[in-house]
Amino acid sequence: MTGVVSHSWADLVERPGGWTREQRLWWLLWSGVPGLGFEGLCQLWDHFGSLAVAWAAPHRALARVHGF
């Protein structure tokens, strides 16, 4: 965990080769969380390595993410 948003829009959205269908679905799911925003998504991505892993994380693990 870095505690700092290290991804840019290009890093996350304009990946070489594009995203897999699963990555797009997880992004869509998380983007529906009120108040989360792009920076919050980046924090989750940085901390857990994927949005799928973040979704399955227990509440106490989510509480350790910077900004949550």
Furnish the topology, listing elements before pairings:
Layout: H1 9-13, H2 21-31, H3 37-48, H4 51-56, H5 59-63
Q: Report strand %.
A: under 5%
Low confidence ranges: 1-5
Question: What gap, in angstroms, lies between the N and C termini?
Answer: 13 Å
**C-alpha Rg (nearest Å):** 12 Å
Count of individual helical segments:
5
Structural class label = mainly alpha
Tell me the series of helices and strands, N- to C-terminal.
HHHHH
Number of domains: 1
The largest sheet, given as strand count, sense and whether it forms a barrel, is:
none
Helix % is 55-70%
Structure, described:
This protein has one domain. The chain contains 5 helices and no strands. The protein has helices spanning 9-13, 21-31, 37-48, 51-56, 59-63. It is mainly α and 68 residues long.
In short:
The protein is mostly helical and 68 residues long. The protein is 57% helix and 0% strand.
